[in-house]
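Re-run with default settings, no changes from the original entry. Doing this only to confirm the output is reproducible before filing.
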Amino acid sequence: MTLEAAMAVPFFLCAVTALLYLFVFTAQNGQAYRRLMEKAEMLAVTAGQITEDDPYIRLYDYETAELPFVSLFPVRHPVIRKVEIRGWTGYTGETFTGNGQEELVYKTPGGEVYHKSRDCTYLKLSVHMVSAAELPNCRNESGGKYDPCEYCVRKESPGRMVYIADYGVSYHNSRNCQGLKRTVMAVPLSHTEGLRCCSRCGS
């Protein structure tokens, strides 16, 4: 083997190895995108927790890929993945009442009633911020007082400002408290056995 050939072989092997690595990285990147999309699709069914001003779910993933053998020193390249999917809140009940298909209604996990309208005020919380000093005089639409939220208040004292909902039963220290969010599911009417029809939107 000549000197030139002996010197060329290592460079050739490095080039082949780098090319193979790029193929592997491309496959791994595709798998990462699929995992991110699957996660977004799972989150889409909880679209009741998404603000109505922005009905889209956006997930980001970031990593630094190291590309060996490309130069004398390892090359690090930032890889940013983004997945955007619209939150799914079900079809309107009217959509499924034709052609012999069953009507869809709406319910929340653990709820005792089902709703005929996705826009029912019981499903769409109207949240207000009030001072803690005003809280003892505040009443919900049923005339009841507001109790401490089991998630964000518990045994703590209320903050200077708290959050209440017209049809809620608790006050909250955080606007992002899970008690101020609704997970709404669209289900066939036949799947609501044991649930009462909402008195507001079912009449």
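Strands lie at 56-67, 75-86, 104-107, 113-114, 127-131, 147-148, 161-165, 170-171, 185-188, 196-197. Residues 93-97 have pLDDT under 50 and may be disordered.
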